[in-house]
Amino acid sequence: MNKVISIIVSLAFVCFAFNGLSQKQTPQQYIAKWKSEAISQMAQHSIPASITLAQGILESGSGNSDLAKVANNHFGIKCHSTWTGETFIKDDDEKDECFRKYNDASESYTDHSLFLKKNRYKPLFELDLYDYKGWAKGLKKAGYATNPKYPNLLISLIERYNLTKYDTQSIIAVEEVKKDEIEPILIGEPVQEEISMSIYHTINKTANLVPYIIIKDDDTYEKLEKEFGIRKRQIVKYNDLSKTHELVKGERIFLKPKRCKSKEELHFVKQGETMRDISQKYGVKLSRLYKRNHLDEGSQPKAGQKIYLRKNKKD
């Protein structure tokens, strides 16, 4: 009798264990697990967290696909000629295709961000960071996926699970952040968020995630080019400078193009403040500020005047 009971208990345990193993992860569970990694990648590489999460859900089946479980590959990235790591073979568009295999899924997230830095995806980074529809369509146009419905699938996931809320979250220190300690970006003054350290400069970001540095006493264009790989003409263009401008200690210099709008709604002009000052303060393109506020280029605002940083509600 005791032997029979023992067998029954053993069978029950096996069934329980099997059910536990076969239970699939839901999209909500996937989001809860990987949202902070997506936000981290957004802070480091300026890729919308909503897009990263939507692609992860879609490409990995919410982490349930064989590619995700066995190879830790959440984005369906294939080997290509440059890949020197481990591989995973499975049928896809063709039989026995080669996919990248990672030690853990966080490596897949990092590789996904680096993968999107290829030249063919460059137009994506000219889009507003919060334009998830533009990013979804741009990924398909650049050849990320062959499915003609790919943009609509991403957009549907983003809207269904309200993933855009993660685009407005940021991390104070990427290396030390915990999964459940994400803080929202504060509306008001641009967030001076330290995301990485070069040998000579701290790289900060405005609230709309445009990276910048503060010029030091001995900085020159030549030194910045060696340090960041950015030529003088790019620095001049990104910062609305004249070709004859000399770098001044304490000034803010952007390392990437400013964006079309800010997280903040508007700015009240202080005495002596110029349109370029406002542009540099919020990381918004100077030409957009002039156009949005119906001002002639080159003109300057008056103290107390309202300058719209996003779309003017009167328009």
Could you explain the architecture of this structure?
With 315 residues, the protein is of the alpha+beta class. The chain has two domains: 27-183, Lysozyme (Orthogonal Bundle), CATH 1.10.530.10; 185-315, Roll (Membrane-bound Lytic Murein Transglycosylase D, Chain A), CATH 3.10.350.10. Helix content is 38%, strand content 10%. It contains eleven helices and ten strands. The protein has helices spanning 2-22, 27-45, 49-60, 66-71, 105-115, 132-141, 150-160, 221-228, 232-238, 275-282, 286-292, and strands spanning 87-90, 97-100, 169-170, 183-184, 196-197, 202-205, 211-214, 252-254, 266-268, 306-308. The strands form four sheets. The protein has a four-stranded antiparallel sheet with strand order 5-6-7-8, with no helix packed on it. Strands 1-2 form a two-stranded antiparallel sheet. Mean pLDDT is 82; it is low at 4-11, 13-21 and 170-197.
